[in-house]
Amino acid sequence: MAKKKKRGPGRPPKKKAPEKVKHTVANGFWRQVGAVFLIVLSIILAVGLFDAGGTFPVGLAGVFKWLIGWAAWVVPLIFAWQAIQIFRAEDNRISNAIWVLTILFLCFGAGLFQLLMTDPATQAMTNQPLGGEGGGAIGWLIDVVLMEYLDKAVAALILIVIDLVLLLFALSTSVSAVLNGVKSFFGREDDGEAKKNEKVARQLTAKGAEVASGGVEINDPTVAVDINQPKAGKKSARDTDSEAAPTKAKGLVMDSDADWKYPSLNLLEKNAKPPNPGDINGNADIIRNTLAQFDIAIDGKMGANVGPRITQYTMLPHSGTKLKKISALDDELRAALEAKKIRIEAPIPGKREVGVEVPNQETADVRLFGMFQSDEWQKAKSELSFAVGRDTSNHAVVSDLSDMPHLLIAGQTKSGKSVMVNSLLCSLLYRNSPSDLKLIMVDPKMVELGRYKDIPHLITPIITDSSTNPATTVSALQYAVKKMEERYLELSEKGVTNIQEYNEQMAKRRASDDDADAERKMPYIVIVIDEMADLMMAAGKDVQALIIRLAQKGRAAGVHLVLATQSPRKDVVTGLIKANIPATIAFAVKNYTESVIVLGSNGAEKLLGKGDMLLQTADSPAPRRIQGALVTNDEVQKITSDIRINNHPVEYDPEAIAQPVQMNGRGGVMMGGGDDIDPLFNEVAQFAIENGELSGSNIVTNFQVGYGRSARILAQLEKRGVVGAKNGTKPREVLVGSLDDIE
Q1: 193-213 pLDDT, tens per residue?
Q2: CATH class of segment(s) 368-657
Q3: Structure pTM?
Q4: Residue extents of the structural domains in the chain
Q5: Cα–Cα distance, 204 to 600 (Å, whole number)
Q6: Architecture of the 681-741 domain
Q7: pLDDT tens-digit profile of 477-531?
Q8: Cβ(88)–Cβ(156) under 8 Å?
């Protein structure tokens, strides 16, 4: 075979044949063209029905009249409607079922029109078939069948019901939505605020048949929500006829805000996409087969709980199987499922089953709006209830801060910690007026809580200088301790044990009008610290001492802490803080060590971020996996702006950040003067100096005070350096020579 000659270096290259130009059209182009022709056809048919437009339109109209009679007048409207739906649909495609149902709707409608004739069973046509009386040929045929078994009235009822069902299906709406719309249309408007009644349903895509390996039972809840103000929330002033002027704050014991206007749910985002768990049956097969490779058998079927973020595959291991053996297969299952992270729960709390949690292909949106419409939120009665999110079974989770009674939120950057703080605060604002709730906010980062600036619930301006000037925060915490102690005295005087009993007693007295003090109520105080790390670095011992004091005694007095940190280290979340704050929300953390610090166990290091959390409370120590509720910065801004615009301005308490503070590592309490010093301090100090020693019994005997007061005076003398530390049963050593040596 002759070799192909190479072209010389000086010769021009051989010209390539020009490529053919291809013409492409946009996706859905021909379906859009079909929709345009459908509109044109509806116009032609409409003209023909009026015996105009020429032979073709009139003839086309005559054919439809002959087929379905008077129902032909509806056809142009239906054609136009379907054309609009094609333009609006994704990829310009609508289901074939819609076309079939539309045809059935016209046919049964023709049967209904035929019943209007004097003798439906015999008058199939007139002398002019194209005139189209009654229901035409199709309507006559349907009525002939029905009239064999039913009388005219019953046949009409059946046809009406069938047509209504077909119409609702074609319009993708529900009977309740129609009834609510009719009720809203004829009902009285409420102060100009439109109340929409929509039905938003998340239909999970997990619909699986049984697999050969035993089958999968799928928990597929449909979450229906209705746009109404939460029943458990306070009644809005928009729903009352009260025209009373706003009542002003009186310290932390306030008159009821009779004209308080709560924010509307219309400020929240309503649209939410459903989850896509992927191939549930395929994943179940993979899990079963992978376990079988390690001689782990499963009894019966596997279950699948489809949650917003993950799908939990549940199984019952064969009797005698060690659960630790399944837990050790974390890496093998993750590789087999080709998942970034999985979590094995062995066993599921309260069950014999084991759960394998696999990330969904697409994550659902857990909107705060949907949480407020859930049954769990409607049933929650506490003023401090807040929306957490949805669990692995897609059920709403609502917690009560008053039961916790304090909350620690920890997680690395972008794990969902700040969104959780916003969800908690927005939940409280939707339930409480300033007479029910007061807030102290500490925001070292200066950007997270700024949207809550100047809302009437604040006791102090938002504290943003805690890292550079920790005394401000220590003062606010010391103020909270002071109010807590004052409240305990108030509760003792009223003969009650906690804030709930106190407010109930005041409400009863107010109803009977026999007590002037009954007009007052005691609001809850919630202290939110968004970033603990900076504060602990600046004034760790002082802050820790005050936090522990509030955590130990705050619940009965209605004082609650919400502490958040993105650095769950031992020097931030100390053992004392964790011991006194049992309720924890853990988001994704960096490693096993941080998970143990936050939860006391592993698990948080396997979370997926962006709202994926583990909730641990004192009454449920086993962590519960939840996808946190989502509230955007824009929604928060709308809520707080609505509160500021529609209600009285904020009235700060200047005393809160003006407490005498000494950074001494013991809670910031200044012992150098002020109201905290016992009036007998100097006399006892002089007595100690003269005697060279001091004990509690000396103070009780010589100054005729109780043992409690003597202990406080001893503590004050020790903090000022007058006497030494306790030394068993021996009297304390005196460390100064005169009163002038006391600082």
Answers
A1: 333 333 333 333 333 333 333
A2: alpha beta
A3: 0.59
A4: 29-176, 274-359, 368-657, 681-741
A5: 34
A6: Orthogonal Bundle (1.10)
A7: 999 999 999 999 888 888 899 999 998 888 887 777 655 555 578 999 999 998 8
A8: no
